[in-house]
Amino acid sequence: MGGIVSGITDAVGLTDSDSGADAAKDAASAQVQAQREALEYLKEREAVPQQFREGALAQLGGLYGLEGGDPGAAANLRRNPIFQATLGDIGAQEESILRNQSATGALRSSGTEQMLAENQRQRQLAAYQNSLSGLQGLSGLQSYAPQIAQQTANIGQTQAQGIIGAEQSRQASQQAGFGNLMGLGQLGLSAFSAFCDPALKDNACKIGEMEGYSIYRWTWNDKAANLDLYGEGVGPMADEIEANEPERITYIHGYKYVEARNGH
Description:
The protein has 264 residues and is α+β, with helices and mostly antiparallel strands. The protein is built from nine helices and six strands.
């Protein structure tokens, strides 16, 4: 019995990583990769707006004389295309004023000069207002900074969950394997009862013998998962028991289940 127990102990991997732990790590890695791709996308989307926001804020700070503002903001404003476009029609407006004054005989009056000066003042004011409005709009562009911060936090959380999940899966698999091992070692196959249908198992390999039956170690597959069976298992094959003790075989949810012998 000692050799069988030792073989089962090695096979169930009481000291090694199990497939469930690896799966948890793989799932976490895949999720982290997707989150990192989303983070890179957000950073790319944020790069240009951030550049415009910072530039606009520097110009506004300079215009208002704030520390850190661009000292050349006023000159930059006058070179602004919006500023230039707003002033572009001054000539046409002045010509219209002069024609109107000439038609009314007031061309040489002081009122003409006042009208021309007022028109220029109004156009200058409109040019400044339009340019400031544009800078204010740029400074208020949507920022993805909150989403970037949240996505960064999500990556760290996912990595932590992957580590925790892997450890939990490893511990659960070890406990299940240890339980199977102790049950076989203490009670033998007479009291053994469990799903042993080969259709539920993958990677089955023989690790010893007990009471004339081969003992296997296997990994529960996707079909077994529907029965809440995960990780690794240890025990006989239902087909082999059925050949000698058919009365011990029943079907549960369409799969072979080994019952304990009568009296156990």
